[in-house]
Amino acid sequence: MYYKNKDENWRKMADFWGRIFKINFAIGLVSGLTLTFQFGTNWGAYAEFMGDVFGPPLAVEALLAFFLEGTFFGAWIFLNRDRQKLKAFSMWMVALGTNISSLWIIIANGFMQHPVGYNMAADGSKVVMTDFLALITNGYVWYMMVHTLLAAYLLTAFLMMGICAYHFLKGNNNEVFKKSFSIAVAIALVTAVVLPVLGHGYAQYVTELQPAKGAAMDAIWETGSREPMYLIQVPDSSTGSNSVQLLGIPGLASFLYTGSFSGTITGLNQLPHDELPPVEMIFWSFRLMTILGSLFIIEALLGLYLQKSGKLYTSDKYLKLMMWSIPLPYIAITAGWIVAEVGRQPWIVYGLLKTANGISSVPISDVLLSITLISAFYLILMVFEIYLIKKTVVNATGVE
């Protein structure tokens, strides 16, 4: 926008939010490199089993997205300000690269959720890719990709709203943060509304392919039609039932997971017991995600109303709420990934390889040591990232 209309506020916005993006990008780069080492340290058997399928998407991601990001990230940082056209182009290329990167990673993950385009090796030791196009067009990939990107945009919007709220509370009501809040609240509202709509189709698709995951999301133990969704519910996997279930809405669970209020859902007790995921973890993670999703819609609507009515900058309670809401999208996204990954258990590659058979053939002490060291490294990165972002936000250099 600055390149187009030369409004200094747009330049300041690009510089300020760009600094926060650069911090996240650098931390993401370092953590991503560390992640690859874990295939060897903890998941050697999995890497051997999946290498023929897992390798090509990650290779494309590295060759295409990583080099695209790396090249233009350097240009974005080091180009002089008078090269605005190229600088703006570099920013867009970095953004494009990060989205392409996420796509190829999710293509690899999509095979783990719904294996397609493969044959088993003659000795059954690994999968062999036979159709690369099937890997790319896997329906699971595109449901997951859209859901993940929208969630990322929602998180970004709430981060921006929370940071703007901090400055409004400090009396810093300049145009940079006003414009930023206007953009962020619009993105937050759109993504918060669209996510559950698309999530409805995603839930149906997941339930069809992974019935145990779908049933666990709402703790449905017995096969039935017109299944209600209970507003108050406590699952108990030890008894294969719910210890508490109150305020049921008839047919709502069937509608969510089948698209019909009279649809039939296969209950957990009718599925192989040794192929069930940890029901309580899936159930509560899914509930947490949906509750927070509802809260996001309310917060975005309230923010839009307060801004349009001119009351935003004096609404201290709302501004404080948005500040404290910054971690909530992170929690919601983490809960969603718990549903996606833990809900697939006991399979690491659904229907083909169990998690217990995918770990490295090393002593438990070695696995524990590597997990401890890697976790400590990630913790250090997280603390360092929070420190840098906090410093950037508080100083707000160049915004005035």
Q: Layout of SSEs?
A:
Layout lengths: L1 H4 L2 H34 L2 H35 L5 H30 L4 E3 L6 E3 L2 H5 L2 H31 L5 H35 L1 H7 L6 E2 L3 E8 L4 E9 L2 H7 L5 E2 L13 H30 L7 H9 L2 H16 L4 E3 L3 E2 L9 H32 L5
Antiparallel strand pairs: 1-2, 3-6, 4-5, 7-8
Helix pairs in contact: 2-3, 2-7, 2-13, 3-4, 4-6, 6-7, 6-11, 6-12, 7-8, 7-10, 10-12
What does this structure look like?
The chain has 13 helices and eight strands. By secondary structure, it is mainly alpha-helical. Strand 7 and strand 8 (353-354) form a beta hairpin. The chain is globular, with a radius of gyration of 23 Å. The two termini are 19 Å apart. The mean pLDDT is 85.
The stretches of 5 or more residues where confidence is low (pLDDT under 50) are none
* Beta strands, count: 8
* N-C termini distance: 19 Å
- Using only C-alpha atoms, the radius of gyration works out to 23 Å
The ordered string of helix (H) and strand (E) elements is: HHHHEEHHHHEEEHEHHHEEH
Largest beta sheet, briefly? 2 strands, antiparallel
Beta percentage is: 5-15%
Tally of individual helices? 13
Averaged pLDDT: 85
Shape: globular
Structural class: mainly alpha
What share of residues is helical?
A: 55-70%
Strand order of the largest sheet: 1-2
What would a concise description of this structure say?
By secondary structure, this protein is mainly alpha-helical.
What distinguishing features does this structure have?
single chain; 400 residues; mainly alpha; two-stranded antiparallel sheet; 13 helices; 8 strands; 69% helix; globular
